[in-house]
Specification:
The chain is mainly α. The chain has 2 domains: 174 residues, no CATH class; 292 residues, no CATH class. It has 25 helices and no strands.
């Protein structure tokens, strides 16, 4: 909100064009090894140490590679300033790599509050750096400074919190299967990243930095609800589900409760963003970003779509079905890219419409494929969605009609508070009262806050999944920084 009023759309676009390209390398930085560490039932200190040095090696290679491709990125976009931006951002790979296994240790130990505090500290310091540089007139370099400072602070903090010092790497300690698992996860992530970010590369190449800046801000705002809710719950859910995979009924119940809560929280946000797109952009970013209103509104369906499909990754990864996840990504990527290409001649609005259309059409096949032959059925997923959907649509009509009465007489903030407040009040009344879901959600919250509800380490995970509501700040830096990845 602050940087949007100090900097210009072109500043965000310049950094966004670089991040859309080197973000692919960022996915290789982890190499899926943090996921492999958390997913394994038992991990030895020798394995952790070896994986740490593998991460360091990969990070160093990626830093060098990013530096080497800096002139290529500059030439591709016909923008000389991107050479220096890419060269500086290249250092971030090594900083990130140094904290991968320490972060995985905290996740294995269910220390989610500690992780949240660390990421909030990283957010606070990086934002202070970015705003300070922007105020002093550094322009787009403020975004570069903010991007680089976050992993530096985060890695220093996870080292202190984990209290683990890696030893020297060893051979013959059984990490080959972990490397295969991590490699599959990484390949899956690369394909998904390409599918979700190629449009920013294309917009930068054919429409320029300002178009990327406008589309990128709209895209980031759209991703705040799902990125925060899914990320806050995802770390907890994945760790717990990985330990419940041999108990089918408890596994199913735990997954569906978390899934139901995320959908109930996300669906009203989708409708609010759609109904009040103009006012949201004016309040959050300011008048200079009016061009982002239409892409923002066109992208709003993806808030719900990602809330539906992202948690299925917890399901597949926790039971080891990474191969199926990879196959899903291999089908999704060409579909989404085709949509981008069709919408590209119409600029940011055309790309936003094509992206939302493809993702909406893909949602049902995606869900059916992911849950096939698992303990969770397609009917379970639709049941979790049906009541929030009906309540949301019923509450949307009065909120939409109210705009015709006060729309010309109030400020953007007042219109947003009145309309949003009416909608959310009606939504809760219909969902909890009329549709009788109050008991269900109270039971979910009681279960999530009770350490004894699942026992042992899984009980600790259940108590911390209340982070779905309380701890979305823990991943805020990932959605605030000029990263355009979902």
């Amino acid at each position: 909100m602050v940087l949007g009023r100090i900097l210009e759309p072109r500043d965000f676009g310049l950094v966004g064009m670089v991040m859309a390209v080197i973000g692919i390398l960022n996915l290789l930085n982890d190499f899926g090894l943090s996921t492999a560490t958390v997913q394994r039932t038992k991990v030895t200190d020798e394995q952790l140490s070896t994986l740490f040095w593998v991460n360091i090696l990969v990070g160093a290679i990626l830093s060098l590679l990013a530096f080497l491709i800096a002139p290529i990125i500059s030439n591709f976009y016909h923008e000389p300033r991107l050479f220096a931006v890419t060269s500086v951002l290249a250092a971030g790979f090594l900083f990130n790599a140094a904290g991968v296994q320490h972060g995985a240790i905290l996740q294995r130990q269910m220390r989610f509050t500690v992780s949240a505090v660390i990421e909030i500290i990283s957010l606070a310091i990086s934002v202070a750096v970015g705003i300070g540089m922007a105020v002093r007139g550094y322009g787009y370099w403020a975004l570069v400074g903010m991007t680089i400072s976050a992993p530096c602070v985060s890695t220093a903090c996870v080292w202190r919190a984990a209290g683990w010092i890696p030893g020297r790497p060893r051979r013959g300690i059984g990490i080959r299967s972990m490397l295969r698992f991590g490699g599959t996860v990484t390949l899956n992530g690369l394909i998904v990243y390409l599918a979700y970010n190629l449009e920013k590369v294309l917009l930068g190449r054919y429409w320029g930095a300002e178009s990327v800046g406008i589309y990128g801000r709209a895209y980031q705002l759209i991703n705040i609800p799902t990125a925060n809710l899914n990320s806050a719950a995802g770390g907890v859910a994945f760790a717990a589900l990985s330990r419940l995979r041999d108990e089918p009924e408890r596994f199913r119940n735990y997954f569906l409760k978390g899934y139901s809560l995320i959908l109930a929280l996300t669906l009203p946000l989708t409708i609010v963003c759609s109904l009040f797109a103009d006012d949201l952009i004016l309040v959050l970013l300011g008048p200079k970003w009016r061009g982002a209103v239409e892409p923002f509104r066109l992208l709003t369906p993806t808030i719900l779509i990602f809330a539906l499909i992202n948690p299925l990754g917890w399901l597949l990864f926790s039971v080891g079905l990474v191969g199926r996840s990879l196959k899903v990504a291999l089908v999704l990527a060409p579909l989404v890219i085709t949509g981008y290409v069709i919408g590209l001649p119409y600029g940011p609005n055309g790309v936003a419409f094509a992206y939302s259309a493809v993702m909406t059409l893909w949602a049902v096949p995606h869900i059916a494929w992911c849950v096939h032959d698992t303990v969770v059925s397609f009917r379970d997923v639709m049941s979790a969605l049906s009541r929030p959907l009906v309540a949301g649509l019923a509450a949307a009509a009065p909120a939409f009609a109210l705009q015709f009465f006060y729309g010309h007489f109030s400020s953007s903030l007042v219109r947003l508070l009145l309309g949003g407040g009416l909608f959310l009040g009606l939504y809760l009344l219909i969902l909890l009262g009329v549709m009788g879901q109050k008991t269900l959600y109270l039971e979910i919250l009681r279960g999530f806050t009770s350490r004894s509800s699942m026992g042992g380490a899984s009980g600790a995970a259940a108590s911390n999944i209340v982070g779905v509501v309380v701890e979305p700040l823990k991943t805020a830096y990932a959605t605030t920084l000029p990263k355009l990845a979902p």
